[in-house]
Write a structure and sequence with these properties.
Elements: E1 8-14, E2 18-25, E3 30-37, H1 44-61, E4 68-75, E5 85-86, E6 96-97, H2 99-107, E7 111-115, H3 116-127, E8 136-141, E9 145-151, E10 154-155, H4 189-192, H5 194-207, H6 224-232, H7 236-260, E11 264-268, H8 276-289, E12 299-302, H9 309-321
Parallel strand pairs: 1-4, 4-7, 8-11, 11-12
Antiparallel strand pairs: 1-2, 2-3, 5-6, 8-9, 9-10
Amino acid sequence: MDKISKPYVIGLDMGGTNSVFGIVDARGEIIGQTAIKTQGYPDVKDYVKAGVEALQPVIDVAGGIGKIKGMGIGAPNANYYTGNIEYAANLVWKGIVPMAKLFQDALGVPVAMTNDANAAAMGEMTYGVARGMKNFIMITLGTGVGSGIVINGQVVYGCDGFAGELGHVTMDRSENGRLCGCGRKGCLEAYCSATGVARTARELLEKTDRPSLLRELNPKDITSLDVSIAAGKGDALAKEVYEFTGKMLGEACADFAAFSSPEAFVFFGGLTKAGDLLMKPLKKSYEEHVLGIFKGHAKLLVSGLKGSEAAVLGASALGWEI
């Protein structure tokens, strides 16, 4: 069937906290959206059931399942080749989960899947600030740190579908390196994710007696948003958290530039809402650490798409390819 008889696809952006579903037309317009809590369903079958139930009213508005050509999913540790989620550190389901097949059986339409950051890269390349670029690196800053690498206009998957796990590059090889959700120590994700920012804030509060607006909160409840709000009010300790985070992320990107010489790094996710608090130290650190031959080549950009649109649109692109 062609795009006239089946004019829509479903895109699913599956994050560690929330799952956002969108019905997308051939022009890249999201005509309807819904969401569920990813963490609310310890049994993956219950998650799929809840997702399908949440989707039903949106599918009905689109004219029914007969108008849906396929579904694309962007998810952590998603294997593009097998349609499985494999050993995702930030999801409640462990081991190998045949997510594409579960949704395919439940909806009755073809389903394809890729890494959530790869999906975001596809969306940004088609509809966002990376439009027209053939070489760029997408860095997603959410519950974890993900990446989608585009070289010569193609997303890099590697031999097994898992290329591009830049969030698990080791930044601290000492014994004091932070434990990452993947089980290793010192990963970029343990420092530069939203959870990493909150952890940095807690460590500074514990190690010093410096005054801070964050001391008014229960340390266990502090989030990256709390840190951002405090920093925006001039809180010195909160600002230091973002200085530390931006510096490390800039160093990491300087290293990443060495293997693909990208036109741009595009940053996407909740942490980017901190704006210059994150981006100024990031850019400064990048220029200080990048190899001389790469200086001034790559732009450091924040995603031009709102909310989860980059990932939803990117995931939906897979639906047209099935």
